[in-house]
Design brief:
Blueprint (H helix, E strand, L loop, with lengths): L3 E7 L7 H4 L7 H16 L4 E6 L9 E4 L3 E6 L4 E9 L2 H13 L4 E4 L1 H7 L7 H12 L5 E6 L5 H17 L4 E6 L18 H13 L3 H5 L3 H7 L4 H11 L4 E9 L6 E8 L2 H9 L4 H16 L11 H4 L4 E7 L2 E7 L8 H14 L15 E8 L3 E2 L12 E6 L2 E5 L9 H12 L8 E5 L1 E4 L1
Parallel strand pairs: 1-8, 2-7, 2-8, 3-6
Antiparallel strand pairs: 1-10, 3-7, 4-5, 9-10, 11-12, 11-13, 13-18, 14-17, 15-16, 15-17
Helix pairs in contact: 2-5, 3-6, 6-10, 7-9, 12-14
């Protein structure tokens, strides 16, 4: 999966915040250093959205919950520092996909609205389980969108299934996403621990971290129930959820630190996706003519700061006219994508030359590509057929046709064969969302096919 860039299990003691912990911070330097390192590594992937699950938001016995307000904020006034406050816009499109996928997999997911909050007397502010990890991600430079989830007291197997639902939702969205599981480990490591003492607290922590390091969901789901009860933890369900998000994907996990000086276990684990197999497969493939032209266009532009000339002799493939999308990927993750669904230049060759440069320099989601990156960037070129109007959604098939929805000046396009888009209804819903067209609004719908060259 290209969209999911990293996952992490991060602790959330407010004492980790310098304004709260002050001199006590010196007692957990390993944890603070590891969380900073994890935040920096996540930020290097340039995620546009963070999905975070916390055990200290509104917790229901029979459902996980998701905050749907357009902007979420919170502070640490409860810990004496109201000046430590954060706010993030929510990722409405990803939230909608998570809700759909959870429903499809039979996971009870409650949408936290004002009415729900009023009925249950809940606060919709960000809890400290979310604020502490987000504090360090913000310090590392993250300024993107947020999806805020709270665990439910569901069976562990269902929390794993919910992680799979989130994985499927991320696969649909055309943006880079990181997932954070906020959770502390055993609260009973020493005799004067806040939750009391159990000699098995350390055993629980060791088993959980070993399972996370090896991405071993069977170990977590098979953990002895009496051991879980003895541990007095708040991180097991977030950890199980995180392994659901990673389930079936090629990833490498690393335990960055573990300590428990205050009687509570703090573990820091980061997992990054491994796209080595995809790179090897790509290396074995012969580079197509359109992809070669796109790379030449980029190399020329980055050296001369102007567009290259169109080659004098063009093959039949490049001499026609069509809409063209150029996509750039680095390490299996999107690095830029710009295109046109109708021809705007005299030839396909010119479309490729122009859109390759735009994908590298004009995609607002990313910083411009620099020369040093080129050797690590994979390029694909999609050549579109002429869009044709449809009279019935029965003429659509997300595995074969892309769609364009249009309402006045608002236009949304979705390519075919996208992972996780299995129905026409899902395809149209996402395309409308991208166009800013409400689901109940009528819109013109067009279909097209795509030929991909790599």
């Amino acid at each position: 999966m290209d969209n999911l860039v990293a996952c992490a299990l991060l602790p959330h003691p407010p004492i980790m915040i310098p304004e709260v912990g002050k001199e006590e911070l010196a007692k957990i330097t390993a944890t603070v250093s590891a969380v900073k390192a994890a935040a920096e590594r996540i930020k290097e992937h340039n995620p546009q959205t963070i999905v975070l699950i916390t055990p200290h938001g509104p917790v229901f016995q029979d459902a996980v919950s998701i905050s749907i307000h357009p902007r979420l904020k919170g502070n640490l006034a409860a810990f004496g520092v109201p000046e430590v406050n954060l706010g993030f816009e929510t990722d409405g499109l990803l939230i909608k996909q998570i809700i759909r996928k959870a429903e499809r997999l039979g996971v009870n997911l409650l949408e936290l609205t004002d009415e729900v909050a009023k009925n249950y007397r809940l606060s919709l502010s960000l809890d400290h389980g979310a604020l502490v990890p987000l504090y360090y991600l913000h310090q590392a430079g993250f300024k993107g969108q947020l999806v805020h989830l709270s665990i439910g007291m569901l069976p562990y197997e269902e929390m794993y299934t919910f992680g799979k639902a989130v994985q499927a939702a991320i696969g649909i969205i055309d943006k880079k996403v990181a997932v954070i599981a906020s959770g502390d480990l055993s609260h009973r490591l020493v005799p004067d621990a806040p939750a009391g003492y159990s000699p098995r607290g350390q055993e629980f922590d060791q088993k959980l971290l070993a399972a996370m390091e090896h991405l071993d969901i069977k170990s977590l789901l098979g953990m002895e129930r009496t051991l879980i009860e003895e541990a007095g933890e708040c991180g097991l369900r977030p950890a199980v959820f995180l392994l659901g998000v990673l389930g079936g994907l090629s990833a490498k996990a690393e335990v960055l630190s573990y300590e428990g000086p205050f009687g509570v276990g703090y573990g820091v684990v980061i997992a990054e996706l491994n796209n080595a197999k995809a790179k090897q497969k790509k290396a074995r493939q012969k580079i197509s003519e359109p992809a070669q032209l796109a790379r030449q266009s980029l190399e020329y532009y980055l050296e001369h700061h102007e567009l290259m000339a169109v080659p004098e002799k063009l093959s039949p493939l490049l001499s026609g006219r069509a809409g063209v999308f150029v996509s750039l990927k680095k390490g299996g993750r999107l690095r830029g994508c710009i295109g046109t669904f109708l021809s705007t230049e005299a030839t396909i060759a010119e479309e490729v030359i122009h859109n390759a440069v735009k994908a590298a320099t004009k995609d607002p989601r990313f910083t411009p590509v620099v020369t040093e990156e080129l050797t690590g960037i994979d390029i694909s070129v999609d050549i579109l057929s002429e869009p044709e109007g449809i009279s019935s959604i029965e003429e659509l098939d997300p595995a074969r046709y892309g769609v364009i929805v249009k309402k006045g000046m608002r236009t949304g396009l979705l390519l075919p064969m996208l992972e996780g888009v299995n129905t026409v209804e899902e395809q149209l819903s996402i395309a409308k969302e991208k166009a800013g067209i409400r689901s109940e609004e009528q819109a013109e719908v067009y279909r097209f096919t795509v030929t991909r060259y790599q």
